[in-house]
Write a structure and sequence with these properties.
CATH topology of the largest domain: Aminopeptidase
Main location: cytoplasm
InterPro entries: Leucine_aapep/pepB, Macro_dom-like, Peptidase_M17_C, Peptidase_M17_leu_NH2_pept
Strand order of the largest sheet: 7-8-10-9-13-17-14-15
Family: Belongs to the peptidase M17 family.
Largest sheet: 8 strands, mixed
Domain Cytosol aminopeptidase: 328-335
CATH superfamily of the largest domain: Zn peptidases
Pfam family, one: Peptidase_M17
Number of helices: 13
Number of strands: 19
Strand content: 15-25%
CATH architecture of the largest domain: 3-Layer(aba) Sandwich
Length: 481
């Protein structure tokens, strides 16, 4: 068990000296006020401090010089430390001190400890032949941060955030047969009890009574694992605003009758990344005691093929009462979000509503894997989310929500259709569809996280969960709301 603390006295088996990239590293190192003994300055002649560059000096103790690169950004610093500790956790041992008393590194304390604890994450949760290997995280050791400024709160928050992120990353990375809607709703109940937020789970019969017709329509093809609708509530006595967070929770997406190609369909276990972000944000808000009231709604279902499954051309109902022509059954995420958005608006009347979903491939075509698409009907809300994205590294890029795109969603036989016939502007037309179900709410934002919820990392050879959304939303709740 690793304990984390701030310590001005240095007495460790190993030291880590992080440095940003510069031409003369030695000058930076000489400014460090500590008792670490280092005299081999020629060793630093060719060390520039580029991102993830490391240099080891062994004298009285091990001294690791760790390059942070040129970007003075919290997310970049966090990734460097995550990579270093992940790749070296079997080599490190004993107490470790990280020197932050130089180059303004104290401001990155939260990001650093967050990256370090994220290095514990293990994708091989279901492997049976794993050897029980001892690594640094399993030791009874101390992680000390040497800093003249008080950073204890930053250290605690960074660790807490990593614990929540790893919990939702595990949910996203779990195979679909290990996180059915019922299993996932039970996990949410456990998190609510442990962290301090209320959870109400509606089963398929209760969903029918509520009138969640669009959610149940998507669920019809999944006979053995029917839908669940989960409402989470966190309240604070000093709160003066209520936020509604809504997440798409498709635990596996075959595309339904409009079947997806087989290549990489295994990644469709990640189609509940939006729900995971909402769950994680609720968890962190409760742990941090944020002074805001939050209602979180996640619509959980599989999108499978069965004789009962909805078909292209079908017309279905919705919670709001609007009829929807199903053009393509693979555009199911917006259907479950439609019911969740309308439900939260009518029953909870939040001041702000934000939904998150791994919604469109068009978003990835437009923005790649660097940012989520942001579409909003409120300029102040959009800008505050953009600011939090820049602060946390979970970036968003605003796309237009103009009514120029509204006609693309008109149906001849129903109030609206779920997919435009034109193979263009897919991320925007999806948002225009959702806008129909916010029922006139004037402070709403939609985040299409298709390109950022799942990605490459040192955790494995294939894509895995990034935990995207929690840092963004927590930062926004703390300062941007």
């Amino acid at each position: 068990m690793i304990s984390t603390k701030q310590n001005s006295a240095v007495n460790s088996k190993s030291y880590i000296i992080p440095v940003f990239e510069s031409e003369i590293i030695a000058d930076t190192i000489k400014k460090i006020q500590s008792s670490v003994k280092f005299d081999n300055w020629t060793l630093l002649d060719h060390f520039k401090g580029s991102a993830k560059e490391t240099l080891l000096s062994v004298e009285d103790s091990k001294i690791y010089f760790l390059g942070l690169g040129k970007k003075r950004e919290a997310s970049a610093v966090s990734k460097v430390f995550r990579s270093f500790f992940y790749n070296n956790k079997s080599k490190l041992s004993g107490n470790i001190s990280i020197l932050l008393d130089h180059d303004g590194l104290e401001e990155f304390a939260e990001a650093i400890v967050n990256g370090i604890y994220l290095a514990q994450y293990n994708l091989g949760m279901l492997k049976t032949n794993q050897k029980a290997e001892n690594d640094w995280f399993s030791e009874d050791a101390e992680l000390n941060f040497v800093s003249e400024k008080a950073i204890e709160k930053d250290l605690a928050k960074g660790k807490m955030l990593a614990e929540t992120q790893m919990r939702i990353m595990k949910l996203v990375d779990s195979p679909a047969n290990y996180k059915t809607p019922q299993m996932l709703s039970e996990e949410i109940e456990k998190m609510g009890k442990s962290s301090g937020f209320a959870v109400k789970v509606y089963d398929e019969k209760q969903c029918e009574k509520l009138g969640l017709k669009a959610l149940l329509a998507v669920s019809k093809g999944s006979v053995e694992n029917p839908a669940r609708f989960v409402i989470m509530e966190y309240t604070h006595p000093e709160a003066n605003k209520k936020v509604g967070l809504i997440g798409k929770g498709v635990t596996f997406d075959t595309g339904g009758v409009s079947l997806k190609p087989g290549d990489n369909m295994n990644y469709m276990k990640s189609d509940m990344g939006g729900a995971a972000a909402v769950i994680g944000t609720m968890d962190m808000a409760a742990k941090l005691g944020l002074k805001v009231n939050i209602v979180g709604a996640v619509a959980l279902t599989e999108n499978c093929i069965d004789s009962l499954a909805i078909k292209p051309g079908d017309v279905i109902g919705s919670y709001l009462g609007k009829t929807i022509e199903v053009i393509n059954t693979d555009a199911e995420g917006r259907l479950v979000l439609a019911d969740a958005l309308a439900y939260v608006k009518k029953n909870h009347q939040p001041d702000v509503m934000i939904d998150l979903a791994t919604l469109t491939g068009n978003c990835i075509q437009a923005l790649g894997y660097a940012a989520a698409a942001l579409l909003s009907n409120n300029d102040d809300l959009a800008q505050s989310l953009i600011n939090s994205g820049q602060t946390t590294g979970e970036k968003v890029w605003r796309m237009p929500l103009w009514d120029d795109y509204k006609d693309m969603m008109k149906s001849d036989v129903a109030d609206i259709k779920n997919l435009s016939s034109a193979p263009i502007a897919g991320a925007i037309t999806a948002a225009k569809f959702l806008e129909e179900f916010i029922d006139g709410h004037t402070n709403w934002a939609h985040l299409d996280i298709a390109g950022v919820a799942f990605g490459d990392s040192e955790y494995g050879s294939m894509k895995s969960s990034t935990g995207y959304g929690v840092k963004l939303l927590v930062d926004w709740l703390e300062g941007g709301l």
